[in-house]
Amino acid sequence: MANMVVYLTPTNEEYKQQQLKMPVKKPVEVHQENKQFSPYITVMQKGYQLKFVNDDDITHHIYSASGPKRFSFKLRKDSSQKDLVFDQAGHISMGCNIHDWMSGHVLVVDTPFFGVTNNLGMVEFNSIPEVQYRLDIWHPQLQTNNNTYSQTVTTPLLETLTIQVNASMDEIPTQQSLDDFEFLEGY
């Protein structure tokens, strides 16, 4: 399935501390575009910056009321942006106080080894150290405990690892308004 978060966490505590010092991927961006969060699901490493960018010509009021990072801020029209650092691992659900159908998710992980599956349901990890990992597969609509499926893997793998997750998925919400009106004057 596409858009599943996959991440690897070393099971060895000593190596887990060493891997936190490894280079990380560049800061991530979440855009508000066509009154939607883009991407719908974002994954990033704990302790790094997430940039919110408004590409719409209207104001958005982005918020999260639960999870390890609660926030609320307005992003005015014309490409305004806001940077936040996420210093705790966990799942953050987002919405827009103005456009209540908008929803998005951020998963903050405590490892530099993460990715999101492509349209073929594949994710590739290159040049990862040869140790044992807990492999987690996460999606906000995955109907499992904490929306996660986990198993142990040891690298190096001699062939492509195929995982079948036997769990139901909730429907992904539609990201569009039922009514087409704006009430932004004076907001």
Which helices and strands, and how do they pair?
Blueprint: E1 5-10, H1 13-19, E2 28-32, E3 37-38, E4 41-45, E5 48-54, E6 60-64, E7 71-75, E8 81-86, E9 90-96, E10 103-109, E11 114-116, E12 132-138, E13 148-154
Parallel strand pairs: 2-5, 4-10
Antiparallel strand pairs: 1-11, 1-12, 2-3, 5-8, 6-7, 6-9, 9-10, 12-13
Q: How does this model look, in words?
A:
With 187 residues, the chain is mostly beta strands. The protein folds into two domains: 1-23 and 120-170, no CATH class; 26-111, Immunoglobulin-like (Sandwich), CATH 2.60.40.420. The strands form three sheets. Strands 4-10-9-6-7 form a five-stranded mixed beta sheet, with no helix packed on it. The protein has a four-stranded antiparallel beta sheet with strand order 11-1-12-13. It has one helix and 13 strands. Strand 2 (28-32) and strand 3 form a beta hairpin. The mean pLDDT is 87.
Which CATH class of the largest domain applies here? Mainly Beta
Percent of residues in helices comes to: under 10%
Indicate the overall shape: globular
Q: Which fold name is given in CATH as the topology of the largest domain?
A: Immunoglobulin-like
Indicate the mean pLDDT.
87
Which runs of at least 5 residues are low in confidence (pLDDT < 50)?
none
From the coordinates shown, what is the CATH architecture of the largest domain?
Answer: Sandwich
Distance between the termini: 40 Å
**Secondary-structure-derived class:** mainly beta
For the secondary structure, the number of strands is 13
Major beta sheet, strand line-up: 4-10-9-6-7
- SSE topology string: EHEEEEEEEEEEEE
Radius of gyration: 18 Å
CATH H-tier superfamily of the largest domain: Cupredoxins -  blue copper proteins
The helix tally amounts to: 1
